[in-house]
Input
Amino acid sequence: MPENKMSEIIRASVESIKGFAENDTFMGRAINTPSGVTVIPVSKISMGIATGGVDYSQKKLTLPASFGGGGGTGLSITPIAFLTVSPSSEVNLITLEDRGSDIEKITGLIDRSPEILEKIKSALS
Output
């Protein structure tokens, strides 16, 4: 496979999200309300990159060089909280949902594992 074509695809994919690559949380533009409260949205950012290519066998094709490739990026922005600043400079963080700790999530999954396994078994039989 021609290395330069694959390198170009990867480079283009990475360049398209370069500005976000170092952050996973983003603070949005401040919104000033008529009552004097400033609201700042806080969002979680998730990204993904997919790149691939194929070099077709010369035996099957009559073209001098056959290469196919592509790449793509995905970006997800999920609001997680709002930061509020009152006219008296009091700061509050309002979260949108109680996410629970990772340990609580794992414990919940283990507690439900017999039920999950039964559903998988019944779906496969």
